[in-house]
């Protein structure tokens, strides 16, 4: 295993309940053994990874592509999201992105074939010989006139409510420490189900007519199959499809919801009347009541949304598992 390029490593010691620090020590020793040139940068605060990635991409945007280092992220989906957004803000970004998942959800890794074993994930990076272009989602906020990018999904309603509750939960930190972060998710799922009301939304898929839904509940635009820490919201979604997939699930009673949730693991949910699926290149979602929003597990707050989605691309550096 070797690597012709240097690594610029961003480490979020706060991801995965603090497990990243230990993982980084093991990875750093492997890089040393393989004589791979790297610099390590620890995030000092939320959004720091965005600034680091932006500065790196800007610095190398005017040099030959082969001179650009690979940006390796050690953290969870949130840290990857931040780094991706830093790179994408630079129009001529030449920095490819590599990732060793250290979070609690790790949906991106699952969705693109990166193992959650850090040593094996490193081997996937070191075995790569060239960048791999993957789809990412682009989201233009028409209310705020801002553009952001996502590697996993953007959700309005139930899943965002879960993220909001989980991130605020005092038990999350405690449970993460004992590798039981999924218990915190479970508690949030139940609470979010009973607090999330049905809400109206308008969906305009590609250049079609706007469609109105009166009882929106889960409204998730996804780039790959997984959300919420391994739930297959849409198995057919793919980072190679040059499309995004929107799943709108209407509010149903608790028993029906559990059934739909269980059906997801067999992908039967999309055949049920309360579930609507759009496979699109362009999409607009409008809500009129304040709802929770989330992007790659990061809280977007509680507000109305008018979002325009399209597909973008990012160079990654790894050999995917089949
Ligand atoms: N120095 C820091 N202090 C506090 N928070 C930080 C710091 N650096 C990064 N963060 C924040 O840590 C948060 C969690 O990171 P991340 O999402 O990567 O981990 P996770 O929640 O454990 O994983 P996953 O999203 O896969 O469940 C992010 O919102 C990020 O902004």
From TrEMBL:
<dbReference type="GO" id="GO:0016301">
    <property type="term" value="F:kinase activity"/>
</dbReference>
<dbReference type="InterPro" id="IPR016064">
    <property type="entry name" value="NAD/diacylglycerol_kinase_sf"/>
</dbReference>
<feature type="domain" description="DAGKc">
    <location>
        <begin position="2"/>
        <end position="143"/>
    </location>
</feature>
<keyword id="KW-0418">Kinase</keyword>
<comment type="similarity">
    <text>Belongs to the diacylglycerol/lipid kinase family.</text>
</comment>
<keyword id="KW-0594">Phospholipid biosynthesis</keyword>
<keyword id="KW-0443">Lipid metabolism</keyword>
<dbReference type="InterPro" id="IPR005218">
    <property type="entry name" value="Diacylglycerol/lipid_kinase"/>
</dbReference>
<dbReference type="InterPro" id="IPR017438">
    <property type="entry name" value="ATP-NAD_kinase_N"/>
</dbReference>
<keyword id="KW-0547">Nucleotide-binding</keyword>
<keyword id="KW-0067">ATP-binding</keyword>
<dbReference type="Pfam" id="PF00781">
    <property type="entry name" value="DAGK_cat"/>
</dbReference>
<keyword id="KW-1208">Phospholipid metabolism</keyword>
<dbReference type="InterPro" id="IPR045540">
    <property type="entry name" value="YegS/DAGK_C"/>
</dbReference>
<protein>
    <submittedName>
        <fullName>Diacylglycerol/lipid kinase family protein</fullName>
        <ecNumber>2.7.1.-</ecNumber>
    </submittedName>
</protein>
<dbReference type="InterPro" id="IPR001206">
    <property type="entry name" value="Diacylglycerol_kinase_cat_dom"/>
</dbReference>
<keyword id="KW-0444">Lipid biosynthesis</keyword>
<dbReference type="Pfam" id="PF19279">
    <property type="entry name" value="YegS_C"/>
</dbReference>
<dbReference type="InterPro" id="IPR050187">
    <property type="entry name" value="Lipid_Phosphate_FormReg"/>
</dbReference>
<keyword id="KW-0808">Transferase</keyword>
């Amino acid at each position: 295993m070797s690597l012709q390029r240097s690594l610029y490593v961003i480490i979020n010691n706060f991801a995965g309940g603090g497990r990243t620090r230990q993982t980084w020590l093991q990875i750093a020793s492997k890089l040393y053994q393989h004589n791979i040139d790297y610099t390590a940068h620890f995030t000092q605060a939320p959004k720091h990874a965005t600034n680091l990635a932006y500065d790196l991409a800007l610095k190398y945007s005017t040099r030959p592509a082969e001179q650009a280092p690979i940006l390796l992220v050690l953290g969870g989906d949130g840290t990857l999201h931040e780094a991706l957004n830093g790179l994408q803000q630079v129009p001529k970004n030449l920095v490819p992105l590599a990732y060793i998942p250290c979070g609690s959800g790790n949906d991106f890794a699952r969705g693109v074939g990166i193992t959650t074993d850090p040593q094996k994930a490193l081997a996937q990076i070191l075995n790569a010989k060239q960048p791999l272009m993957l789809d990412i989602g682009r989201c233009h906020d028409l209310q705020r006139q801002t553009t952001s990018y996502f590697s996993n999904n953007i959700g309005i309603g139930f899943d965002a409510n879960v993220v909001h509750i989980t991130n605020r939960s005092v038990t999350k930190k405690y449970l993460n420490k004992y590798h039981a972060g999924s218990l915190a998710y479970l508690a949030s799922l139940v609470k979010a189900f009973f607090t999330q009301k049905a809400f109206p939304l308008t969906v305009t898929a590609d250049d079609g007519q706007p469609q109105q839904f009166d009882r929106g509940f889960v409204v998730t635009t996804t780039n790959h199959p997984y959300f919420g820490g391994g739930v297959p919201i849409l198995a057919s979604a793919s980072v190679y499809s040059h499309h995004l997939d929107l799943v709108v699930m209407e509010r149903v009673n608790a028993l029906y919801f559990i059934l739909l949730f269980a059906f997801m693991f067999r992908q039967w949910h999309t055949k049920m009347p309360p579930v609507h699926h759009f496979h699109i290149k362009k999409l607009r979602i409008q809500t009129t009541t304040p709802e929770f929003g989330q992007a790659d597990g990061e809280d977007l707050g509680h507000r109305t949304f008018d979002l325009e989605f399209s597909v973008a691309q990012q160079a990654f550096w790894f050999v995917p598992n089949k």
